[in-house]
């Protein structure tokens, strides 16, 4: 069965965005782009909340075609255009969308149906509201966290309204980047 892995930048004090959704504190450089690009290139399904999906749709489909496109833009745009996208939204209609599935209700059954399909793990990108919903339904199987060397003090937390303890197991793929960002990989330790 496929697993849902949450891919998230996080501050040392557990926030994924500032109070107004700011992400200008996230450290991203060529080293991190190349590393993340290699890891996500193996995936064939991306999961987004509505806000993150619309942000991605506004940029990535044509990013690789722009005259000043970077290597990262070209590679990530090609990946984004070929993967299957799953979006959690009650407002987007599932009409005319290319290679995209909208889930608007019955979250556990819909997600578990997608988990049963053939393919690689499902990567959940950003999307704090969607992440919170999936955590509450115990549908996330792992966390791929990029801990940024900053304390925000306030903002949108990664973990909120957690009903039960979630036991995690640290995987040996932990890595520190020259920017000071530390990658932590956890799998949910279910009985």
Describe this protein's structure:
It is a single chain. The mean pLDDT is 91. Helices cover 29% and strands 26% of the residues. It has one domain (4-188): Dihydrofolate Reductase, subunit A. Helix 2 (50-63) crosses helix 3 (71-82). With 191 residues, the protein is an alpha/beta fold. The chain is built from five helices and eleven strands, in the order E-E-H-E-H-H-E-E-H-E-H-E-E-E-E-E. The longest helix has 14 residues, at 50-63. The radius of gyration is 16 Å and the shape is globular.
Tell me about the largest β-sheet. Answer: 9 strands, mixed
Instruction: Give the averaged pLDDT, no decimals.
Output: 91
| CATH level-four homologous superfamily name | Dihydrofolate Reductase, subunit A
The structural domain count equals: 1
Q: Which topology does CATH recognise? A: Dihydrofolate Reductase, subunit A
Which spans have pLDDT < 50 for at least 5 consecutive residues? none
Beta-strand percentage range = 25-35%
CATH class: Alpha Beta
Keywords:
9-stranded mixed sheet, RibDG_C, 5-amino-6-(5-phosphoribosylamino)uracil reductase activity, alpha/beta, 191 residues, two-stranded antiparallel ribbon
Layout: helices, strands, pairs:
Layout: E1 4-11, E2 15-17, H1 30-40, E3 45-49, H2 50-63, H3 71-82, E4 84-88, E5 100-103, H4 107-116, E6 122-125, H5 128-136, E7 142-148, E8 156-157, E9 168-170, E10 175-176, E11 182-188
Parallel strand pairs: 1-6, 1-7, 3-4, 3-6, 4-5
Antiparallel strand pairs: 2-8, 7-11, 9-11, 10-11
């Amino acid at each position: 069965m496929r697993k849902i892995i949450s891919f998230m930048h996080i501050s040392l004090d557990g926030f994924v965005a500032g109070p107004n959704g700011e992400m200008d504190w996230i450290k991203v450089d060529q080293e991190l782009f190349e590393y993340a690009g290699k890891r996500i290139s193996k995936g064939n399904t991306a999961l987004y909340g509505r806000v993150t999906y619309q942000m991605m749709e506004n940029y990535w489909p044509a990013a690789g075609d722009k005259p000043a496109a970077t290597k990262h833009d070209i590679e990530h745009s090609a990946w984004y255009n070929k993967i299957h996208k799953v979006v959690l939204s009650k407002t987007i209609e599932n009409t005319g969308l290319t290679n995209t599935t909208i889930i608007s209700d019955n979250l556990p059954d819909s997600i578990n149906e997608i988990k049963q399909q053939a393919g690689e793990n499902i990567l959940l990108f950003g999307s704090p509201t969607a992440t919170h919903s999936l955590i509450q339904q115990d549908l996330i199987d792992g966390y791929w966290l990029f801990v940024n060397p900053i304390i925000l003090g306030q903002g949108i937390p990664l973990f909120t309204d957690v009903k039960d303890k979630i036991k995690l197991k640290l995987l040996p793929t932990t890595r520190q980047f020259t920017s000071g960002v530390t990658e932590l990989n956890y799998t949910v330790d279910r009985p």
